[in-house]
Design goal:
The chain is α/β, with parallel strands linked by helices. The chain has 7 helices and 7 strands; from the N terminus they run βαβαββααβαβααβ. It comes from Metallosphaera yellowstonensis MK1.
């Protein structure tokens, strides 16, 4: 399975999300590959710092894309954005052109990629988070899965030990879950086996 992780701008956490998914899928016992195609190679640097090694002949191949790269060629396409850029990013993805492309794919029988929206660094303040979650639900109609990640100092400083919403995303990618919306604190905090 090819998993493309991208976003319209740098700094939204797409490399962190890509490496987190790599690490979590490996912990689940899968063979995982990783290709850093970004301009700054942060994903590759994170992989080296954490001593993570891609597997030969992977079941999952994660591509950390250059900012602004069109997401239209993976088995799973993950758009990583933050709240200030959410409307702009979703205007691009939900455009008339995208709707026409989906219609053409269905007419010629081309398999559609699963589309995942990861809204990163959502406010941890409960009232603000509720408002931001409401806005995401209104805007994110064209995605198969929506994952809302609260601002987390650990992730911000590349401590990839545990983020429950991204753990659920890894389980979705592995075919163990099918959640449409993954909210912060929807799952009890737990340690992985």
């Amino acid at each position: 399975m090819r998993i493309y992780v991208g976003g319209s701008k740098g700094g939204t956490g797409k490399s962190t999300v890509a490496v987190y998914l790599f690490k979590r899928l490996k912990e689940m016992g899968h063979r995982v590959g990783f290709r850093d195609l970004s301009q700054n190679l942060i994903g590759e640097a994170l992989m080296k710092a954490m001593k993570l090694t891609p597997d030969p002949d992977p079941e999952f191949e994660i591509y950390d894309l250059r900012s602004g790269t069109q997401l239209d060629h993976g088995d799973v396409e993950i758009l990583v954005t933050e709240f200030p850029y959410l409307s702009l990013d979703l205007e691009e993805t939900n455009s008339e052109e995208e709707r026409l492309r989906e219609e053409m794919r269905s007419q010629i029988g081309e398999t559609k990629s699963r589309r995942v929206l990861v809204v990163n660094k959502v406010s941890p303040v409960p009232e603000d988070m509720q408002e931001q979650v409401r806005k995401v639900r209104e805007l994110a109609w064209s995605f198969d899965h929506v994952v809302i990640v609260p601002f987390n100092g650990n992730l911000f400083y590349n401590n990839l030990e545990g983020e429950p919403t991204l753990d659920v995303l890894a389980e979705i990618l592995a075919g163990k879950r099918g959640d449409k919306f993954v909210y912060p604190l929807a799952e009890p905090m737990h340690r992985r086996p």
